[in-house]
Specification:
By secondary structure, the protein is mainly α. 43% of the residues lie in helices and 0% in strands. It has six helices and no strands. Helix 4 crosses helix 6. The termini are far apart. 24% of the residues are buried. The N terminus is likely disordered.
Length: 128
Amino acid sequence: MRKCLLAAAVVMASTGAGYAQDAGAGESVFKRMCFPCHDAGPNAKVKLGPPLNGLDGRQAGTIAGFNYSEANKNSGIKWADDTFAEYIKNPMQRMPGTRMAFAGIRNDKDIANLWAFLKQLDDKGNKR
């Protein structure tokens, strides 16, 4: 039993699942790291990158009105906690050929908070 609990703790720590997610802190991460290229919320527009509304559960490369790379359209990624965390750590490595020239976010707590902020937004940018 102790081995199972230890293994679960290690998995949670390595995936960021052990962090309490704070959408307010995630909004700050978004403004600092994502906002230069992406928009989110009501009235979000296409910028250098697509709006990030309704990201949770959506297939990568599917926002109408944005010209995605073939790598993004054909990635097979469906955005969720684990796929987002893996991707955002190093987008160019996770999706070779993407045009998202971003070094990534390495801090697991920032990633968890950012995802909490993004996943609360429906496809129109309203908080669920």
